[in-house]
Amino acid sequence: MAERSQECWGQCYRAAQKRLPVLRWLPKYSLQCLQFDLIAGLTVGLTVLPQALAYAEVAGLPVQYGLYSSFMGCFVYCLLGTSKDVTLGPTAIMSLLVSSYAFHDPAYAVLLAFLSGCIQIAMGLLHLGFLLDFISYPVIKGFTSAAAVTIGFNQVKTLLGLQNIPRQFFLQVYYTFYRIGETRAWDAILGLSCLILLVGLQQMKSHTPQSYRTEGLSVRISRIVVLAISTARNALVVLFAGLIAYSFQVMGSQPFTLTGTTPQGLPPFQLPPFSKVTPNGTVPFGKMVQSMGFGLAVVPFMGLLETAAIAKAFASQNNYQIDLNQELLAMGFSNLLGSFASSYPVTGSFGRTAVNAQTGVRTPAGGLVTGALVLLSLAYLTSLFYFIPKAALAAVIICAVAPMFDARIFRTLWQVKRLDQVPLCVTFVLCFWEVQYGIMAGVVASGILLLYPIARPHIKVLEYETLLIQPASGLYFPAIEFLRDTVHKRALSAFQLRSVILDCTHVSGIDYTVVMGLSELLREFRSRRISLIFVGLQAHVFQVLLAADLEGFCYFSRLDDAAKSLEKELHSSSEALFECGDSLLPTSAIIQ
Question: 169-178 vs 137-154: helix axis angle to the nearest 10?
Answer without folding.
Answer: 30
